[in-house]
Amino acid sequence: MSHTSRLESSSAKLLNNARSSGVSKISDYFGCNVFGAETMKLLLPKEIYRKLQDSIQNGKKVDIDVANAVALAMKKWAVSKGATHYCHWFQPMTGVTAEKHDSFIDPVGNGKVLESLLGKQLVQQEPDASSFPSGGLRSTFEARGYTAWDPTSPAFLMDVPGGATLCIPTIFVSYRGESLDTKTPLLRSIDVLNRAALGILKYFDQTAIRVHSTLGAEQEYFLIDRGYYEDRSDLLLTGRTLFGAPSPKGQQLEDQYFGSIRERVFEFMTDAESELYKLGVPLKTRHNEVAPNQFECAPVFEETNVAVDHNQMVMDVLKRVAARHDLACLLYEKPFAGVNGSGKHCNWSLATDSGKNILSPGDTPHENLQFLTFLVSIIKAIKEHSALLRASIASSGNDHRLGANEAPPAIMSVFLGEQLTSVLEDIEKGVTSKGTEAEWMSFGIDHLPAVLRDNTDRNRTSPFAFTGNKFEFRAVGSAFNNAVPLTVLNSIVAFQLVETKKEIEAQLKLKKPLKAAVLEVIRKTYKESKGVCFEGNNYSPEWAKEAAKRGLPNITSTPYALEAWRSKKSVEIFGALKVLSESEVESRYHVLQDKYWKEIDIEARVMVEMAQTQFIPAAIEYQTQLANSLSKLGKLEDGKIAAPFQKELLKKTSSLLERALGETESLKKSLEKASTLSDAKELAYFYCDEVKPLFIPLRQTVDELEGLVPDYLWSVPKYREMLFII
Ligand code: ADP
Ligand code: MG
Question: Given this model, what pLDDT does residue 36 score?
Fold first, then answer.
């Protein structure tokens, strides 16, 4: 590609050009970097296109003729748009995406090459996978891991200044077919949910052929000037500030939320958005969030698999484009103490192939019976597996956010809203277990539609809230790969739908009419699971007490929360559904414990380094200045200037300095102790219970010093700068 055309492809340029020539319509370029259905229809022979769509819709294997034809068309399309390389794009258990680029070139003799991509290269690759975490699924001597094409998520072009690459979404599995990634279990969970939901729909809606879960992920993030970011090794290496006194002004005036967007930020946003539109990500909203320099963007919802990939692209593009604007985009859950952290609300629902939202209350009692059947099954799923759901969003970053008065606590509960609650309460009370159809009708099931459609209640404090036609899972952290929580959510709901179906069948065997049978199951299911429903303020300490009484788990630290991955119950449901085998569950558990302690270990090391090389020397310098000043004063007028406050200042500085030195030593000692351990679980617990608590006093001491030591001696940017200058 020529130099000029490469420049053209930089999105900022493109957009500016488009603006100046008056053609900045998003619809003109939306999805132009996606090898989607439209493009395929245009470029593939009819029969091949039909076969591929059949494979995508019905989960059939793509045969090699089809793969060859698709690969050829994909390559032509990508090369015509300036791509020189292709890659299998996958999501290992690290939580971020991975890619290994191969160029299209194929030597054809005489020192010449041609661009080529074969079906077999599209379908499967064998990256050198020994460095990806496998949690014991693959020993190093058996390093082979395979990436395999996932045709249900479209290939796309990552077009960045410097070059374009064709990215092919793939799953990543071991030699024995065990999942080494987050996508394989997600796809399996989508499949089992489809089958389980169809099993229920068969009583109500005979027309649905397929059910899929939908996801709309609201992404929160911070932006700070890149200079500040690079000047703080804590932000650079851990994603969060490990030190930092609060700024006198934080978010107390609440003047940032939905405030006007500053120009520099706006330029960044439009640049990032135009990149994402080209990638077919349907971003819909953008706004300022509650904390200073905190923002949010949200797309229109899509099928979960594609929505998960799109959110990975959103995170990637936000970070890359920020750098282009000399900004740093912080996706970490709690980059700054004392102001709100960032989450990723996962709006989730179920839809049929014809686009009907199953969680949308219907217009007829019959439709509402269907809606309520799904609703109570979801409530029951959360009740039964709340610990697993909590485990699915556990990370060292999210630990700081959950329950910190800005995000839901670690207690997983369901919010339904007043009206829906009263409908379910009526059903629970209004029917006897022998209920005839007449009895069922007597408490007015027919009045449900009008009531349900009005459901506009909001409870911003609930981790899992019904918001009228979808659930909003608010406990997910901003840095998460949504595949993990969504796999769990889809799986527990699928499992419960199968149970619900069994219960309906049992009622029907008693010769009850369908309506009565279903209502009885709704009543019973709600009764058994309503303990997980909570309508009040989830942030209040009273709720923690009440939840404990109800037996709901409240696990605040990651290593403990992760235990639910491999509880007997979880292993059983994952196994029954064939979403994760026992060894796959075990491997995930180990990878996550490993990730946890390593993250805390890095934080501890950065703290020691910053304390020793930045804050302690600054305090010593100041102490020296004060001591010198006092000693000079002592020599003046025969020492008659008492300077009691200066003496106090020196005492205070010296004592803080001594404290900082002592606390740094304690942290170093605990790290030495940690280095004698080797088991991932043992390490995770040690770092959580022994190492991490030592961060608190050291930070407090250093933050106090920050308030005393002269600004010019403090070598790292302060909160007021990072949060207010942009
Ligand atoms: P809020 O009040 O939380 O801002 P919105 O209606 O703006 O609610 O929706 C927020 C997110 O929810 C968007 O990403 C949107 O696409 C998504 N959403 C809406 N309907 C659904 C649905 N049926 N399934 C999944 N996500 C949905
Ligand atoms: Mg929302």
Answer: 93
Compute CA distances 294 → 220, 256, 722, whole Å.
7, 8, 11
Write the burial class of residue 308 (CB in 10 Å: 0-12 exposed, 13-18 middle, 19+ buried). buried
How far away, in angstroms, is 477 Cα from ligand 1 center?
Answer: 17
Q: What superfamily in CATH does domain 31-177 come from?
A: Glutamine synthetase, N-terminal domain (3.10.20.70)
Nearest ligand by distance to the CA of 467:
1
What token pair was written down for 57?
Answer: 């819709």
Using the atom order of ligand 1, give the atom closest to the CA of residue 299.
14
CATH number of 596-722: 1.20.120.1560
Sequence-distant (6+) residues with CB within 8 A of 109 are none
What is the per-residue pLDDT across 713-726, written as a single tens digit (0 to 9) for each?
999 999 999 999 88
Structure tokens, 220: 């929160």
Q: Give the model's pLDDT for residue 459.
A: 79
Ligand 1 closest atom vs CA 218: 14
CA–CA distance from 212 to each of 196, 308, 366, 679 (Å)? 11, 13, 22, 39
Whether the CB-CB separation of 288 and 295 falls below 8 Å is answered with: yes
357 lines ligand 1 (CB under 6 A): yes
Q: Is 209 in the pocket of ligand 1 (CB under 6 A)?
A: no
Ligand nearest to the CA of 457: 1
Topology agreement, domain 219-342 and domain 596-722: no
Whether 432 contacts 523, CB under 8 Å: no
Indicate the SS3 state at residue 670.
Answer: helix
- Asked if residue 406 lies in contact with residue 290, where contact means CB atoms within 8 angstroms, the answer is yes
For residue 242, what are its two tokens? 């490990």
Distance 216 CA to ligand 1 centre (A): 6
Instruction: Report d(CA 726, CA 723) in Å as an integer.
Output: 8
Is ligand 1 within 6 A of the CB of residue 214?
yes
Q: Residues of the chain whose pLDDT is less than 70?
A: 1-23, 128-130, 138-143, 364-366, 430-457
Domain 219-342 grouped into CATH 3.40.50.300: no
What pLDDT is recorded for position 508?
A: 96
pTM: 0.93
pLDDT at 130: 66
The pLDDT tens digits of the residues spanning 181-215 come to 999 999 999 999 999 999 999 999 889 999 999 99
Ligand 1 midpoint to CA 373 (Å)? 22
Give me the pLDDT at residue 17, please: 47
Q: Minimum-distance ligand to the CA of 311?
A: 1
pLDDT on residue 10: 46
What is the predicted pLDDT for the residue at 99? 87
Q: How far is the CA of 335 from the centre of ligand 2 (A)?
A: 21
Atom 17 of ligand 1, residue of closest alpha carbon: 216
Radius of gyration of the chain (CA): 29
Q: Whose CA is nearest to atom 1 of ligand 1?
A: 467
